[in-house]
Amino acid sequence: MISGVSRTYEELEVGAVYRSRFGRTVLEADNVWFTLLTLNTNPIHFDAAYAATTEWERPLVDSTFTLALVTGLSVADVSERGVNLGWREVRLPAPVFAGDTIRAETEVLAKRESRSRPGFGIVTVRTRGLNQRDEAVIEFERSIMLPL
User: Would you state the pLDDT for residue 1?
Assistant: First the structure.
């Protein structure tokens, strides 16, 4: 049995906000590898010459990397023993660049016992990814199934 620090279903309180213990600095290699690994052919993520012609003048970090990173940063707080049931309302209010340090902030929106899986509860959270300037770079809701 994994012994982690994530809160149990009972410990998660509606309205509580949890901040990730750690942040993670995004490396240029993270962005290039993830973009190419997922076969994303948009040159804004891996072609510096092309990116220089855009309004940002440098490569943007692949948004699906940002989604994966911020979800991962929130796991220790709310879902270490759970199963992710999906994301909703994913928004990208600001770009992420190599060198940005991202952390997560997660608010518990709702919780209820599962109607179809006895012994489990469903927790709905809103997570924001924040950069080193406290600017939101991603926001989303997700539902997590946790043992009671």
Answer: 43
Q: Would you give the DSSP letter of residue 69? A: H
Query: Where do the domains of the chain lie, and which CATH numbers do they carry?
Result: 17-147 (3.10.129.10)
User: Whole-angstrom Cα distance, residue 45 to residue 76?
Assistant: 29
Q: How many CB atoms lie within 10 A of CB 89?
A: 9
89, 6 Cβ separation under 8 angstroms = no
Helix (H, G, I), strand (E, B) or coil at 78: helix
E strand or H helix that includes residue 94: none
Q: Report the residue count for the chain.
A: 148
Q: H or E element: which one contains 3? A: none
Q: What is the pLDDT of residues 77-94, one digit of tens each?
A: 888 888 999 999 999 999
pTM of the model: 0.90
Give the integer Cα–Cα distance in Å for 105 and 21. 10
